[in-house]
């Protein structure tokens, strides 16, 4: 799975970080999403899908399965 | 005059724990319905989770409280004309420009770093509660002071002014206080914040206001009025909401002993319980209102520019298509796709701060005061049926 994040639309709600801190973080200065990896390991795939659904700003997308 | 097939809004909760019965009925039969507001205004009401999320993410629906079609104007929500609209009333690029500089202040890691200070504030509030003698009003000693002191901390209100800030803001958000007195308290708080911002401009400290000032100076966007308006919004948006959730959450746990047991026995349950309590009460409910500024469509219903839309958070959060047994309080549910903090670009800026405050309050209260109980019956608790934000005025407790 490959994912991408659009920091221009991210509103820093942190829903993704609450869902899977191993994949998502928030930038210290800007508060917007930071990806620890763009290719999360298989064990995180379900959590990543949840985060994509939960994100209030549609800032996260799955680029390929 | 209300036509027979036009429901009247607002609709009341029939007991502290249940949604207005009309919500389920409408969700089943007319999920997007035109309703009558007090006065001559109509509004669309949304009751399905899917439609509520769609509406709150729809750029054709505006948050501008100055638009004459904005439905909450029927309840007296009107920002003073001489005051710059804070982010909650802005749309699109203007909203983004107002929100962007502040989001790092409320990020998950930043809020995590605030936890020891929040714990201290909660410990001290519980000390005063216990010293007050029984029965004591939990709203007065715990629910109101905790969020107010946390906001003091955040904004960098000097310790010597905490008492002033705390008493005025408690009056300002207390709907039992008469409107004139509340207005006076609002003016006092606004003047205080104006002075505070001026002081921080002279000597920007290591606090939210200080950091905003330095950031704006670096970008060439310094705006005194805008910063006062932001400080006031943070107080208004974060005080009564969090206070009501502390009171209602405690009330729900005390009246559902099996659920309380689960939380008390395993602290890992508390964050889940907080999410469930947020869903279950959905205190902002009709606060997520919008006005169409272009023609759009929600749930198959065309909405014309100029029409109001109320995305009912409580109705969405009790949607059986999305939540199993939606009317049961289940602290192990672990559902975070509720809309208690809204959805779309305005989703609550302070949500992680609210989560931290609520988690720390419930953890500390249940462990430090294991004999905590309601002083009277549930039916004696005065609830806020009349307010835009649901809660209770008083919560007398014993231990
Ligand atoms: C349990 C407590 C809380 C609840 C239930 C709550 C709920 C909400 C909801 C539903 C919205 C969306 C309004 C809309 O879409 O029109 C919102 C926005 C907001 N909240 Fe909260 N809130 C809480 C606590 C806080 C706290 C502690 C703060 C900050 C100190 C805060 C600051 C804000 C701000 C600034 C906005 C406007 C965001 C924007 O327009 O982009 N809230 N809140
Ligand atoms: S959930 Fe979405 S809006 Fe929130 S921080 Fe993550 S990417 Fe940004």
Give the radius of gyration of chain A: 10 Å
Percentage of residues in helical conformation of chain B: 40-55%
Radius of gyration of chain B from CA coordinates: 21 Å
- Please work out how many helical segments of chain A DSSP would assign: 2
* Order of helical and strand elements of chain A: EHEEHE
Give the rounded overall mean pLDDT of chain A.
Answer: 96
Strand count, sense and closure of the main sheet of chain B? Answer: 5 strands, mixed
The structural class of chain B is alpha+beta
Low-pLDDT residue intervals, each spanning 5 or more residues of chain A: none
Overall tally of domains of chain A:
1
Architecture of chain A, CATH level 2? 2-Layer Sandwich
> In CATH's first tier, which class of chain A applies?
Alpha Beta
Order of helices and strands of chain B: HEEHEHHEHHHHHHHHEEEEHHEE
Outline type of chain A: globular
Number of strands of chain A: 4
Helix/strand/pairing category of chain A: alpha+beta
GO molecular function (chain A): 3 iron, 4 sulfur cluster binding; electron transfer activity; iron ion binding
Function (chain A): Ferredoxins are iron-sulfur proteins that transfer electrons in a wide variety of metabolic reactions.
Protein name (chain A): Ferredoxin
InterPro entries (chain A): 3Fe4S_ferredoxin, Fe-S_cluster_ET
What does this structure look like?
Chain A: This is Ferredoxin. Chain A: Pfam families: Fer4_13. Chain A: Ferredoxins are iron-sulfur proteins that transfer electrons in a wide variety of metabolic reactions. Chain A: Keywords: 3Fe-4S, Electron transport, Iron, Iron-sulfur, Metal-binding, Transport. Chain A: Its cofactor is [3Fe-4S] cluster. The complex is a heterodimer of chains A (65) and B (399). Chain A is of the alpha+beta class and 65 residues long. Chain A has one domain: 2-Layer Sandwich (Alpha-Beta Plaits). Chain A is 23% helix and 23% strand. Chain A has two helices and four strands. Chain A has helices spanning 15-19, 45-54; strands at residues 2-5, 24-26, 33-35, 60-64. In chain A, strands 1-4 form a two-stranded antiparallel sheet. In chain A, strand 2 (24-26) and strand 3 (33-35) form a beta hairpin. Chain A is globular. The mean pLDDT of chain A is 96. Chain B has 399 residues and is an alpha+beta fold. Chain B has helices at 21-29, 49-56, 92-99, 108-131, 138-143, 145-155, 162-173, 179-202, 208-219, 224-255, 257-265, 270-281, 313-317, 351-368, and strands at 32-36, 42-46, 61-62, 136-137, 289-292, 296-298, 301-303, 308-311, 373-374, 396-398. Chain B has a five-stranded mixed β-sheet. Chain B has a three-stranded antiparallel β-sheet with strand order 4-10-9. In chain B, a hairpin with a 5-residue loop joins strand 1 (32-36) and strand 2. Chain B is globular, with a radius of gyration of 21 Å. The mean pLDDT of chain B is 93. The chains are: A alpha+beta (65), B alpha+beta (399). Chain A binds chain B through residues 9, 11-15, 17-19, 21, 25-32, 53-54, 56-58, and chain B through 56-57, 99-100, 102-110, 336-337, 341-345, 347-349, 351-352. The site of iron/sulfur cluster has 15 residues of chain A, from helix 1.
């Amino acid at each position: 799975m490959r994912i991408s994040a659009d920091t221009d639309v991210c509103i820093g709600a942190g829903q993704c970080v609450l869902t899977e801190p191993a994949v998502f973080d928030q930038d210290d200065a800007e508060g917007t999403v930071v990806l620890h990896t763009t290719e999360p390991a298989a064990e995180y795939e379900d959590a990543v899908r949840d985060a994509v659904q939960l994100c209030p700003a549609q800032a996260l997308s799955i680029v390929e399965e | 005059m209300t036509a027979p097939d036009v429901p009247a809004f607002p609709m009341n909760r029939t007991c502290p724990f249940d949604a207005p019965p009309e919500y389920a009925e409408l969700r089943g039969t007319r999920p997007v319905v035109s309703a009558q507001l007090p006065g001559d205004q109509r509004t669309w009401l949304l009751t399905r989770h899917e439609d509520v999320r769609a509406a709150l993410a729809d750029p054709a629906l505006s948050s501008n409280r100055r638009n004459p079609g904005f439905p909450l104007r029927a309840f007296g929500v009107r920002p003073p004309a001489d005051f710059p609209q804070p982010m909650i009333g802005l749309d699109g690029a203007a909203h983004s420009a107002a929100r962007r500089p502040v989001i790092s202040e409320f990020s998950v890691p930043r809020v995590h770093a605030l936890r020891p200070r929040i714990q201290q504030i909660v410990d001290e509030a519980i000390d005063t509660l216990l010293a007050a003698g029984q029965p004591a009003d939990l709203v007065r000693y715990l629910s109101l002071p905790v969020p107010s002191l946390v906001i003091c901390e955040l904004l960098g209100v000097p310790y010597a002014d905490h008492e002033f800030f705390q008493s005025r803001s408690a009056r300002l958000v207390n709907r039992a206080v008469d409107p004139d007195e509340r207005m006076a308290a609002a003016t006092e708080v606004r003047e205080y914040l104006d002075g505070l911002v001026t002081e921080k401009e002279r000597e920007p400290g290591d606090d939210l206001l200080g950091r905003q000032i330095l950031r704006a100076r670096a970008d060439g966007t310094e705006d005194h009025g805008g910063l006062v308006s932001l400080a006031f919004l943070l107080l208004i948006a974060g005080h009564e909401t969090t206070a009501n959730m502390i009171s209602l959450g405690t009330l729900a746990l005390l009246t559902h002993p099996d659920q309380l047991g689960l939380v008390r026995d395993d602290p890992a349950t508390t964050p889940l319980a907080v999410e469930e309590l947020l869903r279950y009460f959905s205190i902002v409910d009709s606060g997520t209102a919008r006005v169409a500024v272009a023609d759009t469509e929600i749930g198959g219903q065309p909405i014309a520019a100029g029409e109001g839309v109320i995305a009912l958070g409580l109705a969405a959060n009790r949607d059986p298509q999305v939540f199993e047994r939606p009317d049961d309080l289940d602290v192990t549910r672990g559902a975070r796709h509720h809309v208690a903090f809204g959805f779309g670009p305005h989703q609550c800026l302070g949500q992680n701060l609210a989560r931290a405050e609520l988690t720390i309050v419930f953890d500390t209260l249940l462990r430090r005061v294991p004999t905590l109980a309601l002083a009277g019956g549930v039916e004696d608790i005065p609830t806020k049926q009349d307010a835009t934000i649901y809660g209770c005025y008083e919560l007398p407790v014993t231990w």
